[in-house]
Write a structure and sequence with these properties.
Elements: E1 2-4, H1 12-18, E2 23-25, E3 40-46, H2 58-66, E4 67-76, H3 82-85, H4 93-109, E5 112-118, E6 121-126, H5 134-137, H6 184-187, H7 191-194, H8 203-223, E7 234-237, H9 244-248, E8 255-261, H10 269-274, E9 278-282, E10 297-299, H11 303-306
Parallel strand pairs: 1-2, 3-4, 7-8, 7-10, 8-9
Antiparallel strand pairs: 4-6, 5-6
């Protein structure tokens, strides 16, 4: 999932969508990103001009929230390899060195392990659990977030605190549950459901929903013979639930933006990501963060019922 601010001279998000790449208009500012915790296997920033070392490490803490245990953060461009590039970047050596030092210090506080630095690219890896982070078990200078729901992000301000990981039984266990490689994870029961982290949702209910959407998509394809051919590249599901519709039409020729409305009774987007799908929280009383004419097909099941009294 790519995001970039809206800009008048270089509409990056519009270009991405017209190429058939998932993207939304967004910015890392003061509000939490509209994604659940532990959603992404990797976060990548290339010359994105985000002041990572400032604001008490606020932005790196938000990256930490959305990264899965064992996930990677890739930073390319300033200030990495500043010794060779400071002249081209038109910044002083002292300024760039101080910025990289701040990033390194915050990564250490977050218990990320630096696995590589080559040229202008540095890669860190998030630990798989808190047990494998000795400094976190001792007195730490980093504050832990007190919120009981790390996925409650809609219009919530970022705070300079670290989102705690679920407890584990042993040092090798992945916090929140290990996820199968794709495509096996697509139809496996997501750990957030099997571990009871989504209230009122059982593994049986999830599998029943999965089966129902396979049946529905088959019926859809009888009406629209192009549905499963790759004719529609950019697809949106306006009320995605567990992502059953997207899973049923999964193909390398298409992708689905799974939108979970903020007024839905249960927040299912975490399970959508654990299936290897992508999506976003959104309130359909507002405009969606995209450009005009960017989706080939839009699917909405139960959406008007959900908003009937709004």
């Amino acid at each position: 999932m790519s995001f970039a601010p809206r800009d008048s001279h270089e509409a990056q998000v519009q270009f991405a969508l017209e190429r058939g790449v998932p993207a939304v208009i967004g910015v890392l500012g003061t509000i939490k990103l509209p994604y659940p915790s532990r959603a992404f296997d990797m976060a990548h920033c290339s010359r994105c001009l985000i002041p990572w070392g400032m604001n008490d490490g606020l932005y790196m803490m938000e990256v930490d929230r959305v990264l899965r245990p064992g996930g990677y953060w890739v930073l390319s461009g300033p200030p990495i390899n500043w010794k060779a590039n400071y002249k081209g970047w038109q910044r002083t050596k002292e300024d760039l060195e101080a910025e990289q030092n701040k990033i390194e210090e915050m990564a250490e506080l977050l218990c990320w392990e630096k696995v590589s630095e080559k040229g202008e690219t540095a890669i860190w890896r998030k630990r798989v659990n808190t047990e494998s982070c000795p400094s976190r078990l001792e007195e730490s200078t980093v504050q832990m977030c007190e919120s009981t729901n790390a996925d409650d992000v809609w219009y919530k301000k970022m705070k300079a605190c670290v989102t705690p990981l679920p407890d584990v039984q042993n040092p090798s266990e992945v916090a929140g549950g290990a996820i199968k490689p794709f495509p096996s994870r697509l139809n496996a029961v997501p750990p957030k459901i099997s571990n009871g982290l989504i209230p009122g949702v059982s593994s049986e209910a999830y599998q029943k929903d999965n089966k129902m959407w396979k049946k529905h998509v088959k019926a859809y394809s009888n009406v629209n013979k192009y549905l499963l051919t790759g004719r529609y590249r950019n697809i949106m599901d306006m009320n995605a639930g567990f992502g059953g519709f997207a899973a049923a039409i999964e193909s390398p020729k298409s992708w689905v933006m799974n939108v979970v409305p903020t007024i839905a009774k249960i927040a299912t987007l975490g399970a959508v990501y654990e299936r290897g799908l992508i999506g976003i929280y959104h309130d359909w009383c507002e405009a969606f963060s995209t450009y005009p004419r960017t989706y080939d097909l839009i699917h909405a099941s139960g959406l008007f019922t959900l908003y009937s009294n709004k």
